[in-house]
Design goal:
This protein has about 90 residues and is mainly α. The protein contains 2 helices and no strands. Helix 1 packs antiparallel against helix 2.
Length: about 90
C-alpha cells in the first residue's frame, strides 16, 4: 500500500485553495473588462474571459510549484552540508 505524504496533501490543498480564490477574482475582473468591448451576455466574451483566466492561473500554479521545488532543493543541500560538518 502506498504511503500518502502529509506534505503532498497539504501542497495540493494549498494550490487548490489559491487557484479557486484567484480564479474567482481574475474571472470577474476579466469579464468586466471584456464587457467594455463585447455586449453583456455575448458568449465570445465569456469564452475569452475563461481562456485568459485559465492561462493566468496556470502560470500562477506553475510559479508556486517551481518555487516550492527549488526551496526543497535548497533545504536538501543545507541538510547535506550540515551532515558533512558533523
Amino acid at each position: 500500500m502506498h504511503r500518502i505524504a502529509l506534505k503532498t496533501i497539504t501542497k495540493t490543498i494549498v494550490v487548490g485553495a489559491f487557484t479557486f480564490a484567484a480564479a474567482l477574482i481574475w474571472r470577474e475582473f476579466i469579464v468586466d473588462v471584456l464587457h467594455l468591448f463585447f455586449p453583456e451576455g455575448e458568449i465570445l466574451g465569456d469564452f475569452i474571459a475563461a481562456v485568459i483566466a485559465t492561462i493566468i492561473l496556470v502560470g500562477f500554479v506553475y510559479i508556486f510549484l517551481k518555487t516550492e521545488e527549488e526551496a526543497e532543493y535548497v533545504i536538501k543541500k543545507i541538510r547535506k552540508s550540515r551532515k558533512k560538518k558533523k
